[in-house]
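Tokens as discussed.
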């Protein structure tokens, strides 16, 4: 671990937070009337989860949430980004409300507010109610409308205390990994026939924005994944493949939200329904735009298939994916490229101009196997915060930064093999132990408070 200088000064009022998601931490998978979700079913399929685990208990946040709120208070963050489990609120995705499930979030929000921590709920973080998934999930238009109904129910109950809302988390990953390549729930390998899931998620977002606004919400955003895309070489084949991948992963999910149109006519023609009418809902104005940043992707020409981050890329896909060469890797094998965050913010500003609302970094973090002495995580966060500060000096309007994640947790198809937390969780006992990175951040936030306005 290197010796760190104090972090540069961030603007007064800059929002500091940490993030989690319901399926990854809550557990209590059949308690209080919660219905099953697509990920529950996926974890039961042989070979889908790296260590053969499931999230039936996860980190037992459902029972230990007061302890986790106490950790948040000790850490000194301004805000806590968590997600609501749609099937805990509406076990079938629609219809009968499960009041005990919504009561759980009501208690959590109350306690966060009492602790002086701003609750920032995400309405959907990949846990589609299984009853909906079995009818086609996000491939069906109905799901978008049911999602808006769910948003209305939640906002009516929590909106008097929740100031800031997130509709969806990373619709690109659910579309590409869940419906396209089948390595995430629901495990469909539809390739480009997965694109209706992208459109219906975006439509659900827009309809949910309307539902939230009807309940008085005035701070609404989305958490989209973004990162630079670089060609493997200067060859026309590689640069063309990189341009296509950039469109598919970055622009396909941002252009409709911010520009009111899809970036590629050929892709748009694969989308269902009255697309032009839907774009009016999808383009409902946002109060801020959330960015999840982890690392760039290097892209080469396709046609031969391959493997990237443990994912098999079929030969039918017109690109191959690679990590940035010559860089340190995290425990999950991801290249550490802090300046990619600066590049991402610069590129978004250039592409969208005044159509880009203020930005929140809604996720940034890394996995390392270290138990509590996680100096590499401190190095990672320090470098990325300095890269973020560089973007601020260049004029990027970034209002906050959320670390992924508060706790070690169930890391989707990786099971419990990857630890992203500032807090170590012993999965046998559920004991929480703050890591060195937790204490580093606590000191940095305390120093910010004592320094006063900047």
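Sequence:
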């Amino acid at each position: 671990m290197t010796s760190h200088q104090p972090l540069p000064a961030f603007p007064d009022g800059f929002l500091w937070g940490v993030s989690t998601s319901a399926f990854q931490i809550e557990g209590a998978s059949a308690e209080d009337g919660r219905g099953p979700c697509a990920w529950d079913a996926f974890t039961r399929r042989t070979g889908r989860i790296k260590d053969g685990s499931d999230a039936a208990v996860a980190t037992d946040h459902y029972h230990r949430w007061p302890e986790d709120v106490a950790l948040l208070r000790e850490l000194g963050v301004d805000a806590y980004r968590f997600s609501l489990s749609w099937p805990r609120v509406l076990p079938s995705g629609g219809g009968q409300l499960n009041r005990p499930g919504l009561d759980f979030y009501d208690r959590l929000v109350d306690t966060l507010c009492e602790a002086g921590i701003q609750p920032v709920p995400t309405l959907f973080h990949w846990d589609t109610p299984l009853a909906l998934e079995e009818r086609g999930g996000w491939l069906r238009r109905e799901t978008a409308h049911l999602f808006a109904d769910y948003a209305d129910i939640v906002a009516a109950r929590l909106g008097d205390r929740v100031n800031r809302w997130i509709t969806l988390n990373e619709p690109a990953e659910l579309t590409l990994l869940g419906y396209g390549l089948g390595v995430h729930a629901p495990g469909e390998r539809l390739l480009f026939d997965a694109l209706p899931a992208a459109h219906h998620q975006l439509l659900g977002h827009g309809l949910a924005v309307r539902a939230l606004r009807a309940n008085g919400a005035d701070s609404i955003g989305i958490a989209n994944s973004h990162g630079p895309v670089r060609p493997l070489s200067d060859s026309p084949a590689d640069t063309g493949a990189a341009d296509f991948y950039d469109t598919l992963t970055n622009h396909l999910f941002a252009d409709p939200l911010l520009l009111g149109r899809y970036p590629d006519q050929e892709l748009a023609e694969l989308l269902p329904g009255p697309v032009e009418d839907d774009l009016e809902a999808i383009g409902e104005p946002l109060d801020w735009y959330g960015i999840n940043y982890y690392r760039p992707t290097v892209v080469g020409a396709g046609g031969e298939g391959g493997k990237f981050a443990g994912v098999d890329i079929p030969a039918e896909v017109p690109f191959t994916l690679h990590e940035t060469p010559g860089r340190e890797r995290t425990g999950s094998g991801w290249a550490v490229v802090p300046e990619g965050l600066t590049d991402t913010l610069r590129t978004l500003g250039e592409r969208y101009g005044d159509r880009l609302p203020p930005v929140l970094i809604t996720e940034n973090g890394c996995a390392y196997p270290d138990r509590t002495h996680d100096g590499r995580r401190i190095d990672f966060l320090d470098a990325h915060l300095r890269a973020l500060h560089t973007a601020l000096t260049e004029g990027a309007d970034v209002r906050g930064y959320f670390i992924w994640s508060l706790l070690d947790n169930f890391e989707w198809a990786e099971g419990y093999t990857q630890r992203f937390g500032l807090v170590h969780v012993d999965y046998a006992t559920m004991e929480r132990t703050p890591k060195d990175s937790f204490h580093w951040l606590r000191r940095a936030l305390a120093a910010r408070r004592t320094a006063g306005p900047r």
